[in-house]
């Protein structure tokens, strides 16, 4: 009986340590994304590489909202990380505007330094691809007329019709920029974004504006023309988070920076296609990408 009392007493004295050992849970980070297939793929890439290379757990919230909503959610602590475009930070989030640049490195540094100073947020290194404005034409037309860059369109101004969104038509870095920088004057019809691709398929138009990683570019067999005079601003995606999170979990910087310089426009376009057209799960697409890149094991 005395022995049992001693054993019970010893267990009681160590019980906080025992309980804490068995009930300790890994911290869970919340990573959110904007609307659409692309942000959903990216946040799943973040999730899988973080969980693979650390003790942290990740909850993803896809289609969480638009830029301003995620930005405020990050600052308020409702989410921990979200992918943001360098060009969006410099043009929309910074209250002190920087000079507009088409140099991706400069835009990244302006975004990184500006958001750190303004909000104490950390922007890690960006992916290679840019989801910026683009001009696209049917692949067959590009082959037939030797179209590889935007300036090639000058020889066909009277022959090819363009279909642009209303926003692109009125933007300085849209059709107005094409007129001033490239000297292009095209017959232009304005239309809803989804209708552009139907119109180009029906040959009602031959040129359209797009985003360079749109799944529809692959679906409708369109070729993106090189922006050889650098009209369109750089929009590279990179992980954005609070400085306090990096200070608490410095391993995150090393883990996520392995993604720096990864993902080309074609790769991102293909992953978007797999999700939005083929109906694949974003998590599965993200996993396949990480395995192919040798960043995680199968």
Automatic annotation (TrEMBL):
Gene Ontology MF annotations: transmembrane transporter activity
CDD domains: PBP2_ChoS
Domain ABC-type glycine betaine transport system substrate-binding as annotated: residue spans: 28-290
Pfam families with a match to the protein in the record: OpuAC
Gene Ontology CC: ATP-binding cassette (ABC) transporter complex
Protein name per its UniProtKB record: Glycine betaine ABC transporter
């Amino acid at each position: 009986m005395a022995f049992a009392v001693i054993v019970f007493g010893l267990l009681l004295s160590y019980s906080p340590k025992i309980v804490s050992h068995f009930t300790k849970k890994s911290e869970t980070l919340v990573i959110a994304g904007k609307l659409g297939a692309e942000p959903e793929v990216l946040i799943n890439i973040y999730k899988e590489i973080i969980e693979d290379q650390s003790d942290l757990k990740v909850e993803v919230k896809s289609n969480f909202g638009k830029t301003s909503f995620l930005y405020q959610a990050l600052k308020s602590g409702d989410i921990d990380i979200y992918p943001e475009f360098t060009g969006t930070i410099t043009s929309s989030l910074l209250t002190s505007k920087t000079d507009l640049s088409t140099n991706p490195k400069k835009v990244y540094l302006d975004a990184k330094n500006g958001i750190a100073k303004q909000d104490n947020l950390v922007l890690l290194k960006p992916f290679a691809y840019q989801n910026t404005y683009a001009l696209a034409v049917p692949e067959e037309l590009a082959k037939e007329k030797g179209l590889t860059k935007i300036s090639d369109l000058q020889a066909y101004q009277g022959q090819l019709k363009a279909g642009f969104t209303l926003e692109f038509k009125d933007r300085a870095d849209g059709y107005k920029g094409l007129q001033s920088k490239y000297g292009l004057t095209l017959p232009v019809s304005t239309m809803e974004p989804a209708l552009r691709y139907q119109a180009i398929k029906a040959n009602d138009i031959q040129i359209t504006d797009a985003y360079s990683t749109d799944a529809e570019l692959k679906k409708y067999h369109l070729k993106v023309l090189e922006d050889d005079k650098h009209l369109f601003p750089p929009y590279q995606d990179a992980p954005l988070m609070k400085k306090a999170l990096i200070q608490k979990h410095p391993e995150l910087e090393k883990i996520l920076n392995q993604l720096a310089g990864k993902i080309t426009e074609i790769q991102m376009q293909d992953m978007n296609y797999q999700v939005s057209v083929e109906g694949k799960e974003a998590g599965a697409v993200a996993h396949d990408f990480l395995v192919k890149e040798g960043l995680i094991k199968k």
